[in-house]
Amino acid sequence: MTNLRDAALNSKAWPFEEARKLVKRYEKQPPEKGHVLFETGYGPSGLPHIGTFGEVLRTTMIRRAFELISDIPTRLICFSDDLDGMRKVPDNVPNPDMLREHLQCPLTSVPDPFGTHDSFGHHNNAMLRRFLDTFGFEYEFISATEFYNTGRFDAVLLRAAERYDDIMKVMLKSLREERRQTYSIFLPIHPETGRVLYVPMKHVDAANGTITFDDETGREWTLPVTGGQVKLQWKPDFGARWAALDVDFEMYGKDHSTNTPIYDRICEILGGRKPEHFTYELFLDENGEKISKSKGNGLTIDEWLSYASTESLSYFMYQKPKTAKRLYFDVIPRAVDEYHQQLRAFPGQDAAQQVNNPVWHIHGGTPPESHMVVPFSMLLNLASVSAAEDKETMWGFIRRYAPDASPETHPDLDQAAGFAVRYYNDFVKPTKTYRAPTETEREALDALRTALAAHDGPTDDETLQSIVYAVGRDRFDPLRDWFKALYEVLLGASQGPRFGGFIALYGVDETIALIDSALAGELTTG
């Protein structure tokens, strides 16, 4: 019987494909530092968005995959570039006028517009850490401000001064002529104004580790490159960070992909070994635009978690990372139901199937049992027709459908019932549109009503589905037109659940009453 490690070594699941690259990286000898280092980067210029979370989650999935197929210890660092100058005021924060006074200042020197932390950078870092902690990630957080100020970056910065010309050659090839005239890999932090300066260098003294430049007023300054008085431009900073920390793996969005050769070469010039990379496609909002920290468009982590579990979000993030995905509220129900489908399948799968199952990667190899005896999509329809305002109302129907279920024994179902009521009221109810049945549909609905009223046998999903099927089979071709009519006339939606299962959950008598309302025109008139 194939064991998990053997299965993982042949798995086509993308986390294992990436993990095998790291195994190959150290197949000749283990890392001198004693571990494999995974890194994710965060630019705290705005509130962390769901894509930032996805980066850490996906990196963690690769880390767990690596740990199954290798005995080398691992670490994960989340690095915040919070010494970066604030180039613009985000659209989604309070007190924007206050922030404008501090443009170009390091983010950890900009006052917090929310008034809760030492700076805007500290606030956004805290937001990120809270999000990551919610999901139980194991990571170490590093602030660029601390990294520069405490001297942890000094050795690499001095090396950058020594190899300044080599790094500049790499950078200048990638810049427009106009930018080349003033570009420098070093960004001095003005000793008086505290602003990050984008100015050309008059002299770089490798022997003394200093730079000389004129500020915007023409005044000349000489500063050491060490001790947090100078930072690197973001592209050189990427490669320098890899060299300073000896990073083995980092993933980033497609918008960085053209810079990968630049990052790699700068890392090598500074004495490091370029890491393994993984480039993912970007997330899009409802209009197909890239989600942005400064715009605040697209879903936030908190918004997703208002309507579904953390695991459903992890499932969404696992799927097809190389494909651009629309990240909006309407993707939530499918993610919830597909996640639980995979959970239910897992126990019956062999090792090869299990390591290809998304829930293995979501739960680090030990997924829980699913207690979702009612799909989330069905709960949404139940919330609709029952006009449920709370999950207790939902449980009145659920207990009849699944007598052994309770909030205590089925906590995931209990949570989902509450989410369904909230999701229905916020997103489904405002867009529901009932229509009147056609003559053929009216005759079929009346026949269904008669069949249900006459039925005195079992009221399980399959039995009721067969009744629905029998009514539609002789009246509709294709048969899907019958089910489409049921959804549009009775549920006010273009698609819906397996209808026999819905009747079993909602109740036969209740469904008969629903059909009566539709035939009387009461649903279309509200």
Task: Describe it.
This is Lysine--tRNA ligase. Its EC number is 6.1.1.6. Keywords: Ligase. It comes from Lutimaribacter degradans. The protein is an alpha/beta fold. Among the domains are: 4-175 and 232-283, HUPs (Rossmann fold, 3-Layer(aba) Sandwich), CATH 3.40.50.620; 376-431; 439-519, Arc Repressor Mutant, subunit A (Orthogonal Bundle), CATH 1.10.10. 47% of the residues lie in helices and 10% in strands. It has 24 helices and twelve strands. It has helices spanning 4-10, 14-25, 50-69, 96-100, 120-134, 144-149, 154-162, 164-172, 177-180, 234-245, 260-269, 301-305, 310-318, 332-345, 351-354, 358-362, 376-386, 391-401, 411-428, 439-454, 461-473, 480-491, 499-506, 508-519; strands at 36-42, 74-80, 140-143, 186-188, 203-205, 210-214, 220-224, 230-232, 249-253, 276-280, 283-284, 325-326. It has a five-stranded parallel sheet. The chain has a three-stranded antiparallel sheet with strand order 5-6-7, with no helix packed on it. It has a two-stranded antiparallel ribbon with strand order 4-8. A hairpin with a 5-residue loop joins β6 (210-214) and β7 (220-224). α8 packs antiparallel against α11. It is elongated and about 95 Å long.
